[in-house]
Amino acid sequence: MRIVFAILGLLGFAVAAVFVWTGLQQRTQNAGAAPDQTELVLPPAQDEPADLYADVAGARIRYRVSGPEDGPTLLLLHGFTFSLESWDALADRLDERYRVVRYDLLGHGLTGPDPQERYAPGDRASFAGEVIRALALEQPVVIGNSLGGLIAWRLAAAEPELVRSLVLIAPGAFPFNGVTEEPAPIPPGVAFFLRSPSEPLLRASLASVYADPAVITEQKLALVGERMKGNGDAFIRSLELFTLPDPSDTLSVIEQPTLIIWGEEDRIIPPMHGPLVADAMPKARLITYQGIGHVPQEEVPGRVAGDIEAFLEGLEPSE
After folding, report:
1. Sequence spans of domains, the chain
2. Tens of pLDDT along 128-179?
3. Sheet strands (E) in the chain
4. What is the distance between the alpha carbons of residues 269 and 267, in angstroms, rounded to a whole number?
5. Does domain 60-173+208-313 have CATH number 3.40.50.1820?
6. Which of 105, 140, 216, 318 is the most buried (most CB within 10 A)?
């Protein structure tokens, strides 16, 4: 079970489903009833007015662009099982000055499953590079949370010419709890949850992501559950391909200035990984947030936006 914590820890709130599902099974066995599989009351999936679509390297992605066309470009990469809406509050605070671009990762949101199953972290990083080229983004600042953070730094290491600088928000990086270069088995409860995100499982799982329970609104539950629909098999395949080899050598070659943000109440990826990542990178600075969980851009978007703006303002023109 510790291995399950590690692999799902990087990838978001699915880790909690293991324990929620176990508890539901135990209670219903005692009561002689079937597990509660109540459907979420969700709005129908539909495109928002700002949604755009593009064909990129054999996949069709959903993306959004906001902010001035002549502003510095920010590319935002969300975490596992989430969607580009995870950045809504932050984008609203940054797009007065910056051109903010975000897309649903392969196998997520309204981008949906990838026919080529490019779900391994290295493949996701390569695809992010294809997105930059396809959308003609000129050396963006790449901002990633959790799985998105892992994609961001791997992209910067593999294709440094594409990335101006990095903002990594609780990124996946170092191995922990026994997960290294080998994938971990996926418990049936996790697979069930990823394919059928019923309200009790989703609510309990999100509780592991946010330190502030007020973030878990009915609207949040509906949106996350809706965006997970149709992607269950892609999520499971992502876990099957997910590994955490020691990143020290790769991180050490990243020359881009990097801001690392970590919530001190992160129950998904241990906050102790923050200093490890920062120390491994030549030009990284770490900021920690007291009382904040795994997705700071949703809990304290104003603070995150302020720290990002201060970081970017401090960069030299050549950086």
Report:
1. 60-173+208-313
2. 999 999 999 999 999 999 999 999 999 999 999 999 999 999 999 998 655 6
3. 52-56, 59-66, 73-77, 99-103, 141-145, 165-169, 258-263, 284-289
4. 6
5. yes
6. 105
